[in-house]
Amino acid sequence: MKYLLWLWRNMAGMRGKMSLRIAVGIGQVALALTMVWLCRYFIDTAIHTVSTTDIVTTIVELVLVVSMNIALRQWYYYMTIRDTTAQANSIRLRIFGHLLRRRIYDDTPLHSGDITSRLETDVSAISESVGEIIPQMVVSTVRLMGAFLLLYSMDMQLALMLLLSTPVMVVMGKAFARTLRGMTHDVREQDSRIQMLVQEGMEHNAMLRALESGEWIIGQLNGMQNGLLSKIRRRTRFTLVVRTLMAVCFNYGYLLAFVWGGLQLQAGVITFGVMTSFLQLVSQVQHPILDLMNMIPKLIHTSASIDRVEELEQKAAEDVHITGKRMEGSLGIRIDNASFQYISGDHDILRNFSHDFRPGSRTALMGQTGAGKTTLFRMMLSLISPNEGQMHIYNDRGEQQEVSPETRSNFVFVPQGNTLMSGTIRYNLQLANPEATDEQMRHVLHVAAADFVFDLPNGIDTECGERGIGFSEGQAQRIAIARGLLRPGSILLLDEISASLDEKTEHNLFSRLFESYSDKTIIMITHRSTVTSLCDDTIRIGD
Question: What digits encode the pLDDT tens for the residues 228-272?
């Protein structure tokens, strides 16, 4: 029941379209039953009247019913594809947005490969259920009831005999469901692990080649894929056993109807038209039951997918309606006795850290790896919150605000290393400011000592590969710096931004940066003495 409730909640905006599809499906059922009645009438009545008018009229009616059924079937197919795709897009968009807002450093880490698998495989399974299986279940149920009632009106005993197999199928289906759900969950998990390995292998291709680990990784993937194949074979064998049992019941049920009809025909109890209707209606009764039973494995696959998607939704998220609180004037940030420890850690990364980064100041942060420099930046950006202590931003007018996700709009953050995404240079710059003009882009590229972009054949519309493939580390880093500078914040957080630059480029970068942003508060993580000499203050964390 919980899975049906989850699906119902996630059908918001699609319920009207689903109702229309169900109505179209029921229309197909009505036409199919009308076809049965017309076939019986044509064989038993129209032909025997030797009336050309009756024969032609019945043939025309049969043609119209078939034509309408074909039209409704194509319409139903079109709506199913359209709505299934729309549903998948809706769920994927919501989950993706949720993941982008989650607390990423004080929560259980998620592997990007696993997330990709869930957003593709599991969301597709769910959308198929919402867009295809559930409407078809309703239509099949209506079809079953309609065909049974029409068959019952012709032969009560045969209808009841066919109906007796239904409880057996339901009981068998429930036992089948419990086992299949566990098998499907194992298959999904194994598929996610394969996705993780493939994604990381592509991302670290150069490193794997340098280590000459390619063949070993290929062997690991082969082992995982063999494990997946084994799990799928086991699930398929189990499914085949159940499907065989159901097929035996339904095929012998049809044989029973055929023999029963033949005996009734021999005894003169029924006509040829009724015999034809028997065989059609038996199919109309059995096929919906078979369809419903075949949908059970898909629904079970869906329940496993819902569990995996719900696991993503349960991750803690920030308020989705964050409204940036921009402060006017030159800003500073004051930290009082801040301490922080990661959930997975066994000690404080920062302990009782206090400092006042005054408005317009330039401060260098130094310290050993793991001392807490990057953690301090994350706290300023409110990506994490201190376990103890307070943090406030303030301006030269005496106004102040406690640091929160809403104050993030006051910061410009440039992370360490190559953080470019696949797309054009323009696209990467627009990540910081979608409304940025070409003039603004040219300005920040110049400040970031990334003038080489202007000499490229396509300029800022040059394509970047994944993680900046096509550019050197230094070039990619300077484009990333330019991207950060498009942000309008008054406090610049720069994390080792010159680590991949030569001495001359580094000098040009900082000269232009300090000249263009002389009124900004600049806080830099660095290990270079040449950078610390440009600052007003140097803080050594962890000493």
Answer: 888 888 888 887 877 777 677 667 766 777 777 777 777 777 777
Interhelix angle 503-516/473-485, rounded to 10 degrees, is: 0
Q: What is the DSSP letter of 525?
A: E
Helices 165-203 and 214-266: angle between axes, nearest 10 degrees: 160
Residue 385 parent element (H or E): none
Q: Provide the 3-class DSSP secondary structure of residue 150.
A: helix
Contact 111, 196 (CB under 8 A): yes
Separation of alpha carbons 289 and 166, rounded Å = 8
Question: Cβ(330)–Cβ(490) under 8 Å?
Answer: yes
Residue 488: CB atoms within 10 A of its CB come to 12
Q: Which pLDDT tens digit goes with each residue over 3-46?
A: 777 777 777 677 788 888 889 988 988 888 888 888 877 777 76
Sequence-ordered list of residues with C-beta below 8 angstroms from that of 501, at least 6 positions apart, any chain: 449, 474, 477, 478, 509
Query: CA neighbours within 13 Å on the CB side: how many for 225?
Result: 9
Is the CB of residue 28 less than 8 Å from the CB of residue 65? no
Q: How far is CA 117 from CA 110, 421, 467, in A?
A: 12, 20, 20
- CA 543/CA 540 separation, integer angstroms: 6
Could you report the per-residue pLDDT of 339-358, keeping only the tens digit for each?
888 776 666 778 888 899 99
Contact call for residues 474 and 452 (beta carbons, < 8 A): no
Cα 358 → chain centroid = 43
On whether the CB atoms of residues 253 and 162 are closer than 8 A, the answer is: yes
What is the C-alpha to C-alpha distance for residues 28 and 451, in angstroms, rounded to an integer?
A: 65
Torsion on CA atoms 499, 503, 504, 510, rounded to nearest 10: 50
- CB contact set of 303 (below 8 Å; sequence gap of 6+): 3, 181
The token pair that represents 532 in the structure block:
């610390």
Q: What is the phi/psi pair of residue 45, to 5°?
A: -120, -60
Spatial distance between the Cα atoms of 482 and 476, rounded to a whole number of angstroms: 10
- Going through 278-387 in order, the beta strands assigned E by DSSP cover 331-340, 350-357, 362-366
Buried b (16+ CB within 10 A) or exposed e, 49-63: eeeeebeeebeebbe
